[in-house]
């Protein structure tokens, strides 16, 4: 037997009569003000924040926004878009150049270090063996006359400390003898090759012309000659090339040597007492 379905009566209305003493119009206003799902938010939430003063907002419709540049601007767009790639390529090229330069410096330093460890170069020693002086008059009465000295110098070059390194003395070098800062005579340094473990003594002629000494210098020179101890300076500037073995050699370097000597007389062959020699060459300060 089928069940009967009877419609349910509608639920009783929630609108109850207002209690006595309450205004019905106030209840209607409260119900209208209560938020519901369809009630819009407060107007202050819907409005965008006000822009700061001095600014402008331009609103462009979405259908007018161009995602692809127009034909008249396409070339400029491609040029601007290619700038970052060009900068990356330039930065990469600079990094590669710096890395290559650093690698060359490291390889050169390693090569120089290896050559130094293999050959162990040492500076040759220099000394003045003898000096033959003529034309130096220390008479105070001849103060007004100019001097024309002539000097024959015997120089000793000792390369005995080098076992595998030779020194090639090039032409164009100069040797000079001076007293108290005044150059007396000058001449050429001969060109020759000095093999390893070799000692060479060579003679060179020096000459001067128009040399003037003050009265004080002449008196001091006369007193030093009488005492048998005249201090002189022998200076030389010589272009050389250093040979490492039979294959390697350096470029031409200017070597400066200065020897302080003391002679017993200024006439004839004088015995020279060396007081020390200094040798300088800037590109090879670690060696010379």
Structure explained in plain terms:
- With 288 residues, the protein is of the alpha+beta class.
- The chain has 4 helices and 11 strands, in the order αααβββββββαββββ.
- Strands 1, 2, 3, 4, 5, 6, 7, 8, 9, 10 and 11 form an 11-stranded antiparallel beta sheet that branches.
- A hairpin with a 3-residue loop joins strand 8 and strand 9 (248-249).
- The longest helix is centred in the N-terminal third of the chain and has 49 residues, at 71-119.
- Mean pLDDT is 77; it is low at 1-6.
Shape: elongated
Distance between the termini: 130 Å
Succession of helices and strands:
HHHEEEEEEEHEEEE
The structure class reads alpha+beta
Roughly what fraction of the amino acids lie in strands?
25-35%
Rounded Rg: 52 Å
Largest β-sheet summary: 11 strands, antiparallel
The level of helicity is 25-40%
Put simply, the count of helices is 4
The overall strand count is 11
Low-confidence stretches: 1-6
């Amino acid at each position: 037997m089928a069940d009967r379905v009877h419609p349910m009566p509608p639920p009783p209305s929630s609108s109850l009569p207002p209690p006595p003493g309450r205004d019905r119009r106030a209840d209607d206003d409260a119900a209208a003000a209560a938020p519901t799902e369809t009630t819009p938010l407060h107007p202050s939430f819907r409005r965008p924040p006000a822009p700061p003063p001095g600014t402008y907002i331009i609103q462009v419709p979405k259908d007018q926004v161009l995602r692809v540049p127009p034909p008249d601007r396409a070339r400029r767009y491609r040029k601007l878009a290619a700038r970052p790639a060009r900068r990356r390529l330039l930065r990469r090229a600079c990094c590669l150049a710096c890395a290559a330069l650093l690698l060359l410096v490291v390889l050169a330093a390693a090569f120089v270090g290896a050559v130094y460890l293999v050959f162990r170069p040492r500076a040759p020693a220099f000394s003045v063996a003898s000096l033959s002086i003529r034309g130096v008059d220390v008479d105070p009465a001849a103060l007004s006359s100019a001097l024309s000295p002539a000097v024959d110098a015997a120089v000793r070059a000792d390369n005995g400390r080098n076992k595998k390194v030779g020194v090639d003395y090039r032409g164009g070098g100069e040797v000079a003898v001076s007293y108290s800062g005044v150059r007396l005579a000058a001449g050429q340094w001969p060109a020759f090759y000095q093999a390893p473990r070799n000692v060479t003594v060579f003679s060179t002629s020096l000459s001067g012309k128009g040399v003037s000494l003050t009265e004080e210098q002449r008196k001091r020179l006369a007193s030093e000659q009488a005492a048998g101890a005249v201090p002189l300076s022998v200076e030389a500037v010589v272009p050389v090339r250093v040979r490492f073995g039979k294959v390697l050699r350096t470029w031409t370097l200017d070597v400066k040597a200065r020897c302080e000597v003391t002679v017993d007389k200024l006439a004839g062959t004088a015995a020279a007492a060396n007081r020390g020699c200094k040798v300088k060459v800037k590109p090879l300060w670690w060696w010379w």
